[in-house]
Write a structure and sequence with these properties.
2 copies of one chain form a homodimer. The first copy, chain A, is α+β, with helices and mostly antiparallel strands and 257 residues long. Chain A has 2 domains: 162 residues, CofE-like (60s Ribosomal Protein L30, Chain: A); 75 residues, CofE-like fold (Alpha-Beta Complex). In chain A, 26% of the residues lie in helices and 23% in strands. Chain A has 6 helices and 12 strands. In chain A, the strands form 4 sheets. Chain A has a 5-stranded mixed β-sheet. A 3-stranded antiparallel β-sheet of chain A has the order 4-5-6, with helices on one face. Chain A has a two-stranded antiparallel sheet with strand order 3-7. In chain A, helix 3 packs across helix 4. At the A-B interface, strand 1, strand 9, strand 11 and helix 6 of A face strand 1, strand 9, strand 11 and helix 6 of B.
Chain lengths: 257, 257
């Protein structure tokens, strides 16, 4: 078994990303400027936020007209009705709500607070505080595209994870999770494998892409040091590549809504 | 800002741990044998399982007498009543159950399936399959003790995390979490800090010890490659050390039970 030493390193010098920017070019340029380079087998973990910015997934609160449903819910949970409208428009259904909290199933299938809508690090100096940032429409597709572009432009075969930070039902603090994947499996299914004593394993599906997303998140930081991309080197996940949808729990197995 | 490059490496050659073993000695001996050494500032992530084994937290199913409550619940969820008895004896309360699934609040406060009781990698060759392994009684205390012993015996100042793998409410696959901590903060509270544009951060409590636990879990593996201890080097978490209890969500904030 390999996978004995893994290195995580940030890609430094990534500029603020603006609508229309080519994320792959931004990353490759930053690597060139810093003298670093990608290698075959690297796992590139990229923060959701820079994809959303490049895709102009901004919404201006001043342009949102809350529906009656959003207004009613906003009153109940003491949130801005325009934010509630945006959250509902991004969601399949409301999972839980209470004052200050709105947890939904995002259209992508992920259960998250506020549909992953972000109001931090969004506006730039001089601009209004009126903008928020929605998740990309197709994170798996974005990862596949970046992966193909890196193959094409830099000639290296990397895997790509798009990560975001989310809260948990029973634990404090956010952790990184994978919302888009290309070139690696989202889970490792050990069912059928044996343990150290040659007995079938019990707990046997590992959310490997989420673990890698969390590992990268350690270096990405949340505040002003912002390092949106991390290279994971030295780890190869066994199994066939999947999308991030394998990490969405089947509704039939969901005991908590 | 430092924290730009972090390495994760397994401690190789750790033998099977037996009741009464000194976990610190086992780890330091393995390090010496492999020519590696710990350094000040390292974060040592150790799998719960080897603590439980060293502390003889085994339970023999043949010696368990299920209560009436356990028998009734076992029938309902189609599990071995002796396992259900053990789970209930480790738990403060049942959070959810259905056929094949029993999610409880462990006495330590953590919400987990099966109270973290493990039936994999427990028995050794020739022994019966009758044993399961409970969580340690005081993971934070265990981490503090190992940390102090390493300081004393090896003269280095490390942080220690005890990790376990758990399932999630809405996502498939297990991820590593921290159930014991010494010498580092369990969360990073960024409230009051500003974002890139000098505005107060919104999502601002990071479950850093869980992210580090998940990162280590990538290398620990679940199956026969078993690598129970991982050294994280190059990362310093800001803030004062805490126990793992800071990662337990307040019941008042729990919307899911």
């Amino acid at each position: 078994m390999s996978n004995r030493r893994v290195t995580l390193s940030t890609i430094d010098g990534i500029p603020l990303v603006r609508p229309g920017d080519d994320v792959t070019a931004v990353l490759l340029d930053a690597l060139t400027a810093s003298g670093d380079r990608l290698a075959d087998g690297d796992i590139l973990v990229i923060a959701q936020k820079i994809f959303s910015k490049a895709q102009d997934r901004y919404a201006s609160l001043s342009e949102v007209s809350p529906s009656e449903q959003a207004q009613k819910l906003a009153l109940e949970i003491d949130k801005d009705p325009r934010i509630v409208e945006l959250i509902l428009s991004e969601a399949n259904e409301v999972v839980r709500h209470r004052p200050g909290v709105l947890i939904v199933e995002h259209k992508l299938g992920f259960v998250m607070a506020n549909a992953g809508i972000d109001a931090s690090n969004v506006a730039e100096g001089g601009e209004s505080d009126d903008r928020v940032l929605l998740l990309p429409v197709d994170p798996d597709g974005d990862c596949a595209r970046v992966r193909a572009e890196i193959q094409e432009r830099a000639g290296v075969d990397v895997a790509v994870i798009m990560n975001d930070s989310v809260g948990r039902a029973w634990r404090s603090g956010t952790v990184g999770i994978a919302i888009g994947i290309a070139g690696l499996p989202g889970i490792i299914d050990l069912r059928g494998e044996n343990d150290l004593f040659d007995r079938p394993l019990m707990t046997s599906i590992v959310g490997i892409a989420d673990e890698l997303a969390a590992a990268a998140s350690v270096l990405q930081g949340q505040a002003d040091e912002g390092a949106p991309a991390v290279i994971i080197r030295g780890y190869t996940a066994p199994g066939a590549p999947t999308t991030a949808q394998v990490l969405v729990r089947d509704k039939a197995e969901d005991l908590f809504r």
